[in-house]
Specification:
The protein is of the alpha/beta class and about 425 residues long. The chain is built from twelve helices and 20 strands.
Amino acid sequence: MVGTQWGDEGKGKFTDLLAKEMSMVVRYQGGHNAGHTLVVDDETFALQLVPSGVLYDHIEPVIGNGVVVDPFVLLAELDMLNRRGIDTRNLRVSGNAHLIMPYHQQLDALQERHLGKSKLGTTKRGIGPTYADKATRMGVRVQDLLDEQIFREKLAAALSHHNKVLTKVFNRLPVDPDGLADKILGECLEPLRPHIADTTDLIHTALESGQHVLFEGAQATFLDLDHGTYPFVTSSNPTAGGACAGTGVGPRHIDRVLGIAKAYVTRVGAGPFPTELFDDDGDKMVDIGHEYGTNTGRRRRPGWFDAVMLRHAVRLNSLTDLAITKLDVLDTFETVKVCVGYEIDGVRTDKLPYHQSDLHDAVPVYEELPGWRTDLSSATEPRHLPAAAHTYLELIQDQVGVPISLVSTGPGRTQFLHLS
């Protein structure tokens, strides 16, 4: 399951929906910079690291090797779930996942501040610096917690570099490696020990026994490090291909790729956004859709649906079908729009430009449709949708060439319908 826009598409709801048919739900990349919000029986759960399937007793939730894990955040999330009656004993965390350390978060905030007006808009959760350490082989992994000597040696080696940056570049105090090691080992090791596992083996064992496994991505296609609107991207690969690298499962095991797209588009942080709205329609989307970050509370940037982006996401992810979320947010709009192409320097194109300067200059070409002016919150079958809503969905489907199989009509667990 992958997001097809800039995140916040509502992936958590459909992960929760499909999880009942699964044996295992695996998170394959990202960290606690992405939140999934689930509404079950009028109770809201905001998850950051734990896979959405944790709300089902029969699911084995797995945090894969491609995820970066803040141990303190993970333990706090497990504690929150346990206090609310959710059994988290089945959670497994890859020993190969990398640990986010407090100095990663400090560096993240300092680097953003240093960039000034050119800042990337990160969540300052230490995600980027942790992935950078992973790439430069200075990372500390979850499995290192199980060997105190190794853990202390790796922490000291990483801080021998990072302390120079903190003190000489940013004029900050150095981090004491022994003190930090004492804190993490003392507070995190024993609570995490029963959850640490060889998750690649667990996933393959499940697949070989005929069980169903759902791979859950965080963020979305256009925040992908390689294929997104660089540098305004995340530090991992949320696209479908990332599920293979982030779990240790080969592509032939993946037989369905469900893309999640909001019925409009939002974005958090900086970066190009061709259909962005600065008018009352945009404010209306934000207000009705409660478009504020699950973790950060930041207001999201709103815009009309962009079929050009989605066509490209279909290619990048080999999407088999689509789920459209938050269709109900558009219930009161007199007209709705779909961007079907761009004009760049007066030339029409139906493809996403590869050069980012062109994307910054792209002027959306819209098809405008009448709104349905009907409350969709109780729609649970296709026949409950008014003709105008069907027309809107059919336009999207025709534009991107992939069937829409699911439609969300509200935040609740049961507020959805199967379209095909």
